[in-house]
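Late entry, protoporphyrin IX containing FE complex.
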Amino acid sequence: MAISGAQSSGPGVSVGPTSEFSLFFRVKPGQSESLRDALNDLQQTPGYRPGDYGMAITTIHEARFVLFDDDTRLAFITSFDGPWDAYMEDFFNSGPTLALFDVIFRHAEGYDGLPDLAAEKAFILGAQQSAAAYARNYPGTVKEIRKAQRVNAAFQRVLDHPEAAAALQHPALQPLLDEAGD
Amino acid sequence: MPGNDWVTLELDDIQSGALHERPSPYVGVYLLLRIDDRAAGRELVRRLQAVVDTGTPSPDPAHDAWMTVAFTFHGLKALGVPQSSLDSFAPEFREGMAARATHLGDVGESSPEQWEKPLGTADVHVAIAVLAPDLARLEAVAERARRAHQELDGITVLWRQDCYQLPTGRTSFGFKDGIGQPGVEGSGRPPSNPHDRPLKAGEIILGYPDETGELPPMPTPDILGRNGTYVIFRKLHTNVAAYRQYLRAKAADREEEALLGAKMVGRWQGGAPLALSPERDDPDLGSDPRRNNDFLYGDDPRGFKCPVGAHARRANPRDALDTDGSVDVRLHRMIRRSTSYGPPLPDGVLEDDGADRGIIFVCVGAHIKRQFEFVKTQWLNDGIFIGAPSEADPLVGSGDGATSFTIPRRPIRRRLQDLPPFVTTRGGEYCFAPSLPAMRWLAELP
Ligand code: HEM
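Prediction complete; structure with ligand written out below:
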């Protein structure tokens, strides 16, 4: 299947400004339960708590950890703004993210853990697989989406004003009026 | 000193060009040479190593003149550097700047097919830069360079570019340049921004730990890589008339022109940063080295003082991206040693006189990819990082066509549309400036 607009920038595929990033690991024998516990704990941390919408990396659209094959394997799948290749060094220099990953990936085969950064790098890059197909349903970056949401919330507040209909009659506001009906 | 984990840089082995402030005013000359004969090439290196400048820079830059020597990948090959050593250099350096053109946005008029010869060709082997506070001292040092290469059959001077600071002390667009520089641990120079911890030495000089805590990948053998650094060199033509015409068309008066220009750069023409002086130029602030780089952007996240898309804020966002969690600005710094070339376009002239003028952009660092290339591609050519993917740097542009530029302002933002490219790449090279021992090693290759 051809996906129009999808481009490869080194490892990982991007659509517009956004890139996919997927890692696949084997769970160390006997550790699937402790890994599930670690993921449950992660789910309770700020940023991962449902409804928080505040992950430490603000350029990430979403992230998931998936246990599969009877909990013998683990996938980490995410999308973020910018090309993969340019940001890897920054990622490996980000203390909080590495610490978070450390807690999870220590249950994966081949992980020797921090503080050996070179080993950590090799481990993560070795687990990366590029998507064979990747599509997105909106073109914006996280920063643009957040701005759009703020602007829409403001617009809705304007519409809630009793004199909104009259105020929006000015010709300059026609594009907003076009969006005001529903 | 107890409790001091600063490294000691082996300054006596490091070419001064990297850590040395350029004098102001300055005159300079850049030479590009080709090595046609290996033995002559090595003799050239032997002579040059005796005359390049190293050591602790004089505390008074006005008293100094110096020479820096660097090699392209083709140059190292011409000298007969063994294949295993050649392979150990950074991939971008091995490819060369011309091969990176598409990635860097050097397309259209800026593409290598249009470059000034011999820039970007396999003929460029050695680059020599001489900088001095005045012509007399320039001549004295240039003479040392000349003695090194003249009468050597098999060495050809291909290209020469003179540069000098314009009488105004400004670059062709009218701005004071070379202000924002990172401090470097062990360099003996205090940082110009007190809010900015000096960089780990390995960000700039090979052979020392860098900001990741690791030793940067270094060419082998040790003696070749250690105390060397990569030098990025670009001839950038500035279309000053187009820039002035654009401002004239968008502004009601000279005052507004100055404001729009300052918003595009992030500093007023005299160097005063918008972050400290958002309303008007402050020449005293601009020329005071103790104050003109002493600022951050954290109090101005939306860019009402300094637009997030302004050139200097893009090129070094300081603390503005600290909460993003995805980028460590300290991995993307560089030391700039740019100079001006060509005659100034006289004040008030709006028509292009056809003269070639601009900047010899020179920057120094241990990581071509995550310093120069990252800044150029992610921060100048692109706007993803500021939530404006379609906006490129308003001054330097993306190389491929017009862009727009948003100036945050109350009650409503101003958006400049259809900014044409004001800068064209005329050519450039990735070079390696070896240490003094490395030059001796090169001269004595078996
Ligand atoms: C003709 C092209 C260019 C012109 C006219 C230009 C001009 C300027 C000016 C006027 C400043 C502000 C003064 C200062 O802090 O020194 C500046 C800062 C800077 N520019 Fe450029 N520049 C050009 C190209 C580039 C390129 C290609 C890069 C990097 C890839 C770059 C990187 C920087 C950096 C890192 C700063 C310092 C920012 C800071 O630390 O605050 N510039 N430039």
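Chain A has two domains: 6-127, 142-178. Will revisit in the morning.
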